[in-house]
Structure formats: C-alpha cells, structure tokens
Amino acid sequence: MREGAAERHDRLLNLVRERGRVRVADLAVQLGVSPVTARRDAEALAARGLLDRVHGAVSWPERHGPAGTAPGGGSPVIGMLAPAAGYYFADIIRGAHEAAAALGARLILRVSDYRPEDDAAHASGLLAAGAQGLLVVPSWTRPEHQAAYAEWIARLPVDAVLVERRAEPGGPLDGMDRVGSDHAHGVLIAVRHLARLGHGAPLLVARSDSPTAQAVRTGYARALDALGLGAGLPVLDSTPDTPGHPPEATALAVRDLVREGRATAALMHNDEDATRMVRRLAALGVRVPRDIALITYDDEVAALADTPLTAVAPPKRAVGRSAVELLVERLTAGAEGQEAPRRHLELLPTLRVRASCGAADAPVR
C-alpha cells in the first residue's frame, strides 16, 4: 500500500525527535523520497509549529519536550477509541494526531463501527497495546445507550477524556474530563441567521440516531425560546428509511408545509441527508433557496452540493487537538504527583454561509 503524507510526516517527526536536528538532505535519504518532497514536508510541519527550520535542516522544538526519545520510549502513548474513522470523526482524529505529534506523544486508534457492546473490548485492546491514557468517543446512538454502556468507562484504570459526548448530570461519567462541540450554540447561530434574513421559526428536519442529532434537537427548542420565535413546527425525522434515500414521508411533509406557506426556512441534520433531501424536494417542485432557505448541520460535504449549502461547522479538528492536550497535561501532572481540577471544555461552532439560505458568503459566529 502506498504511504500517505500523514504516515510520512509521522516518520519525519520521529526521526527529528530521536536525533534533535536533521539536515533536510539526510531526511530525504532516510525517508526514501526526493529532496523536493522532504523539503516540502519539512516546511509544512514547520508551518504548523511541529518543527523548527534552521539553515537547511530541521530541529525538534524545545517547547515540545526533550529530543533523543523514540516514540513509545518515554513519550506518552495515547489510545483513541472512535465509532468511525470517516465523515464527522475524520477531522477529530486528524486534530488528535496533530496535537500528539506536536507534544511528542504517540496516538494509536481503534474504530468500533458504532457497536457500543464492543467499546470496552476495544479499550482493553488499546491498553494492552501500551496506551497510558484514553480518548473515548463511545458508540452511543440511542438515548438509552449511555446508561447501558457507561460503567466500563467509569472503571478505566487510566486517565481518560470523553470526546464529543456529554455525560448525564450526576451520572458515573459526569466527573470526567471532556471536550466537545457546543451544538446548542451551533443551532442558535443558525436559527438567528435565518431570523435576521426575515424568516420565522425554521422547520427542523433532523435524525434521531446519534448524540449529535439529539443535541441538535435539544438546542433547537432552546434557540427558539431564546430568540422569542415561539414553539415552532413539529420536528421531522430525517433518519433514512433505506440507506441513501431520504424518508419519503418527510420530503412530502416539507413540500406541503412550503406550499401552505407555513415553512420558509429549515435547519437540517446532517449534510448527506440534506443534499439528498434537496434533490428530492426539487423533484417535488420545491427549490432551494427560491422556495425554502436551508441550513445544514456538520459541514462535511455541504459546500459540494449542486446548490452549496450554508452549514453549521462544529470545530472538529480543534476538538481532537484540545482533547489530546488535556489528556497529556493530565498524564504529565499525574507523573509529577500533582492533581488539577477536572474540566468540561465546549468549543463553539461557526456558521459558513453559502447559497442555500439566499445570502452572500460569509462566516458567522
């Protein structure tokens, strides 16, 4: 299998960490790439602050800890459990990988494929592989999953950070460190943007099969109340009846609400469902944004739709970076016999405005 840039960057960072300083020409030989590729990789890593450039060479930054240590040989090993490696979680994993490299840590990953009953076994596998701390994104998809599959997390023998998941108040995980996106704020800025464009309470078309979807639904009611927009219309479920197809009953309901003049704007979770819904609505005679303004939630593929979709963008990469930084800080403090307060860190999404809401392109916070 051909080596990707991320894997090559890992090897480059490991070489510099071990030696402290390496000439770019020597990197090319060690990595088995052309001098041009080695120089480009070194410049890219230096631009991200992971290395320092010095007269035709690169050096390991003192701020990232001592050089001369091979990965796993004194540097922390961080295990990460995620339900998927693509779509929403790809950027979280990238951010975690970047932060681990910058801090001289090694990140190892296991993917659970949304099987909460397998999460504990995967975590045990990470610990057996040498993980000294864990980033945990449980495979919860239903509200009852947390109660059924939380106890093993509370019993972990190492420090752990809950990522993009909220613990039940007073539950066994409520005292854990956690880092995630403030989805309620993401919904608020979307609804507020539509209100400023002259729309009343937008229709919410959302899935019901993920923690993000559940947070969007909860945030919707709070946003309407905060903005004084009333109770809004009943939420429509966008969970596909069959893979790759929006629920026909939902598409017909949106069409009817538009024709009756009861809905002029909608917020939809998630991008893939929104792009399919836009196509189905067009076949039913409802055009975006001419007949209904639309904002989607996630901003994974929203910009690539036929009509580029305005989207709420959770700070996924920053979530991954922050989770690693918090865990490494926790591990370092523990090694020094110190104890720091536990933290619940929520990062704010942004709104990326495109054609689907009928407004000019602009980032909105």
Task: Explain the overall architecture.
- Keywords: DNA-binding, Transcription, Transcription regulation.
- It holds the Pfam family Peripla_BP_3.
- This is Substrate-binding domain-containing protein.
- Residues 5-60 form the HTH deoR-type domain.
- The two termini are 41 Å apart.
- This protein folds into three domains: 5-64, Arc Repressor Mutant, subunit A, CATH 1.10.10; 77-175 and 316-347, Response regulator (Rossmann fold); 183-314 and 350-364, Rossmann fold, CATH 3.40.50.2300.
- The strands form three sheets. The chain has a seven-stranded mixed β-sheet with strand order 10-9-11-12-13-15-16, sandwiched between helices. It has a six-stranded parallel β-sheet with strand order 5-4-6-7-8-14, with helices on both faces.
- Strand 4, helix 4 (88-102) and strand 5 (106-111) form a beta-alpha-beta unit.
- It contains twelve helices and 16 strands.
- With 365 residues, it is α/β, with parallel strands linked by helices.
CATH superfamily of the largest domain: Response regulator
- Average pLDDT reading: 90
Number of helices: 12
The appropriate CATH architecture of the largest domain is 3-Layer(aba) Sandwich
Defining key terms:
single chain, 365 residues, alpha/beta, Arc Repressor Mutant, subunit A, Rossmann fold, 3 domains, seven-stranded mixed sheet, six-stranded parallel sheet, 12 helices, 16 strands, 18% strand, DeoR_HTH, DNA-binding, Substrate-binding domain-containing protein, transcription regulation, LacI/GalR-like_sensor
